[in-house]
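Narrative of activities, Objective 1.

The group set out to show that a structural description can be obtained from nothing but a protein's sequence at a throughput compatible with the screening campaign. Below is one input-output pair from the validation batch, recorded exactly as produced.
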Amino acid sequence: MNQAIKRVWIALTMLFVICLGGLSYIQFFNAETLNDNALNKRQLFREFDLPRGAILVDGKPIAESVETDDGQFNFQRKYTDPELYAHLTGYYSLANGTTQLESKLNDWLTGSSSDLLFDRLAGMFTGQKAEGASVELTIDGKLQQAAFDAIPDGLRASVVVTDPKTGEILAMVSKPTYDTNDLAVHSTSKAAENMKKISDVEGLSPYVNPAIGDLVSPGSSFKILSTVAALESEHYDMDTVISNPASATYPGSSDTMNNFMEGICGRRSEATLEFIFAQSCNTPFMEISQKLGLDTFADVTERFGFGQQLDIPQSVTPSQFPTKDITAAQLAQMAIGQYNNKVTPLQMNMAAMAIANDGVIMKPNMVKKVTAPDLRVIEEPQPEKFSTATTPEVAADLKELMKGPVESGTAMNAAVPGVDLRAKTGTAQVRTENGTPIVNSWITGFAPADDPQVAITVTIQQVDYNTGHNTAGAIMKKMVEAVFNK
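Output recorded for this entry:
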């Protein structure tokens, strides 16, 4: 064999080995990843002619596959009350892939889960197509509708309601929203056209559930965590008198932190946490942040869930409390929920859950049970502890402090006669337009205080102060009324 032929033979052999290795990797090692990829249309084509399982609320389907005679596929995905549940279900689309629960629950819904192996084997012998399992959500349909109705159209807002004792998510709603049926159509050109219309709506992304995906400055609602840090330390208790100047200069800066000028913080130049928390005074938290330091705040936020991955089973964006290269001035800003302190609405709901549940956060969960086609229950998640955020004693102190905003402070417009609501409001300035501050408005809390049944969080993004503050409280009030039939 001459040298040229030998070289060609070696090159061809190497190419064969590379091709064989690549195919082996794709078929045996990377197959699951490729199958789960939302952009993998081959997988979708294979699945579209299967009777996909339903997603249920209160025993009724909010997403199901119905038979169709359009000539393309045997089944069409249909969504009931689609705008009410769009951010939860996501969509199952030939043109746009799958998102949200349609994606996260795909193994159960398609019947490809290992829990349904025997069903698939039985189908091979009977000739019947394997059906997917149905997934019942923990969502309370009436509370979901109440939350949707409570948010005025035109606002960018989210409402989250949970059971603090179990972590079950009872309602999770965001506006603006969209009709998931528009993306489930079999016509790829029509689906693409509808996707463009949806994507053009300001503040709306069909790929993001805002309640768990939007990172928003929490403003003074974060003072729940800052107060936990203070009370856990040796420096502060419920009777400690803290300086409360109208303004204070940030460390190493000529800029100042101010108390809300339209509030009543200015009536006291020093005060205990009871007054400071109820009226949401800012400047005492500058002193607290400097005395406690960054590490203390970092420890508290981690226990409350910041920076941690969480599936409900939708993937929750981790909330952020930066700890690298943070100056004393920036720490003071983060202590009142500003600068780069960013949270999801669910995160601040978890803060309320912690105080309501004696310092323990139960893992948020949206799946009640999974039922096989033969009606046997194959999965029924049980309540699971997520973390111990603080001690029962500190939680009891915060529970007492959270009475003040509702009775005589910044959350008075959320009060419902006959219900002992505990809450904390928040306002985070985003920017100024024509001299008007544009803010994120918050209220998070729980009720009733002696036996908490629900934790409720309301977030409104990028509105003027009066609209945000008044509307957040009004939404909270409507939700409390809906829960307790007031």
